[in-house]
Design a protein that fits this description.
This protein has 2 domains: about 1-160 and about 345-360, 3-Layer(aba) Sandwich (Rossmann fold); about 170-345, Glycogen Phosphorylase B (Rossmann fold, 3-Layer(aba) Sandwich), CATH 3.40.50. It is about 40% helix and about 15% strand. The chain has helices spanning about 15-30, 40-50, 65-80, 90-100, 120-125, 135-145, 170-175, 200-210, 225-235, 275-280, 310-325, 325-345, 345-360; strands at about 1-5, 30-40, 55, 80-85, 105-110, 130-135, 150-155, 185-190, 215-220, 245, 260-265, 285-290, 305. It has a 7-stranded parallel beta sheet, with helices on both faces. Helix 2 (about 40-50) links the parallel strand 2 and strand 3 (about 55). Helix 10 packs across helix 12 (about 325-345). The chain starts with a strand and ends in a 13-residue tail after the last helix.
Length: about 375
């Protein structure tokens, strides 16, 4: 099949990487894939590193208009079978191209709230050829908010399990670079530095543990509006020297293996939880909260632990369990790697996507959420 993806983002967090990852996964399966993206963006870098064909529109004045025009021109020239996007900017553009280019449309939604526009809600629910959400929680939440999800299907984020993998060499390099000893136990956080991601709950949960476990260290990776406040709290801690801050890294694959566990402490509802799955793919156990779709990213008790969102005491207790038991961390890491390869690998999600695209179209069969 021939696919055309479009994305206007300039960022590189999990939501933005989803479309690029799916495009790469489909290309590796032998499909013809073209992408229209914003030049200089993280998405462009990811695609080019993977050898996927992309048309990059230079940033600047009217770049949004040029992105749309370039997408239209690409669709008319390539005549793809499917137009795919998770970017609301292209929803109505693709609906217009649906007839002009003779293609069908597959729309992803990543946000936990339904579209404000009733017209957009009706388009997604009734007119799009495929309406795709990224977790069972996501589908249930849209239903709770009153949106018609009878035709909405669930497709999880694909993870490059060849890239995100255990690696002793990466582990040694990263730890040496940041002064982390071989006997230190490194607790990692990766993501946006904003309150709703639970960064302050995590800081509070770790304070007593740093006092108890002298070899525990903390690695914070990311940026965001609340990073300065977090840095200030860390600076006031008696254990401030055992915290390390890094800006967000486009290539997280080398950082995960350096950690002994990853914490995803979100207090706001997550539609999925890509960091949790990437970490497990790298053989690292996770401690996550039950905020939304995070519950679907692990096997509790086998690949990681799950706690109540916003409960710093429970989060602290869960992290303590793993800090105190190296053998358990190793068992969970191995099980997590196996779990992700079986359920979230590029090959598996690409097959799942092919299967849902192959189902009968609107009006012929009602698409149910994947269980």
């Amino acid at each position: 099949m021939k696919f055309l993806f479009a994305d206007s983002t300039t960022r590189g967090y999990g939501t933005e990487q989803h479309g690029a990852a799916l495009a790469i996964a489909l290309a590796r399966r032998g499909h013809t894939v073209r992408c229209v993206v914003r030049g200089g963006s993280s998405v462009e870098a990811i695609l080019r590193q993977s050898g996927v064909s992309c048309l990059a529109v230079a940033p600047g004045v009217a770049s949004g208009v040029r992105l749309v025009l370039s997408t239209i021109a690409q669709a008319r020239r390539e005549r793809p079978d499917w137009l795919v996007t998770g970017d609301g900017r292209f929803h109505w553009v693709f609906m217009g191209l649906r007839r002009l280019a003779g293609a069908r449309v597959a729309f992803f939604r990543h946000w936990p709230v339904v579209p404000k526009s009733g017209r957009t809600r009706r388009m997604l629910a009734h007119r799009a050829d495929r309406f795709i959400l990224v977790s069972r929680f996501h589908r249930e939440e849209y239903h709770r908010q009153g949106m018609n999800v009878a035709r909405a299907v669930v497709l999880y984020n694909p993870i490059d399990t060849e890239l995100f993998r255990p690696c002793a060499e990466w582990r040694a390099q990263i730890r040496a670079r940041h002064g982390i000893g071989a006997s230190d136990v490194l607790i990692g956080y990766a993501g946006r530095m904003v309150r709703e991601k639970g960064i302050f709950a995590m800081f509070e949960a770790l304070e007593p543990l740093l006092a108890q476990f002298e070899h525990a260290r903390v690695l914070w990776v990311g940026d965001g509006r609340d990073v300065d406040e977090l840095r200030a709290r860390v600076a006031g801690s008696a254990h401030s020297s055992r915290h390390c801050f890094l800006d967000w890294q486009l290539d997280m694959a080398q950082l995960y293996p350096a950690c002994d566990l990853i914490v995803v402490p979100s207090v706001g509802a997550e539609t999925f939880g890509r960091v949790s799955v990437e970490a497990q793919s790298a053989g690292v156990p996770v401690v996550v909260t039950d905020a939304g779709g995070l519950r679907e990213t692990l096997v509790p008790g086998e690949t990681g632990l799950i706690t109540a969102a916003g409960d710093s005491a429970a989060l602290s207790a869960a992290v303590r369990e793993l800090l105190a038991d190296e053998a358990r961390r190793e068992r969970m890491g191995a099980a997590g790697r196996e779990w992700v390869c079986a359920h979230f690998s590029f090959a598996q999600i690409a097959r799942d996507f092919e299967a849902l695209l192959g189902q009968d179209g609107p009006g012929e069969q009602r698409l149910a959420a994947r269980e």
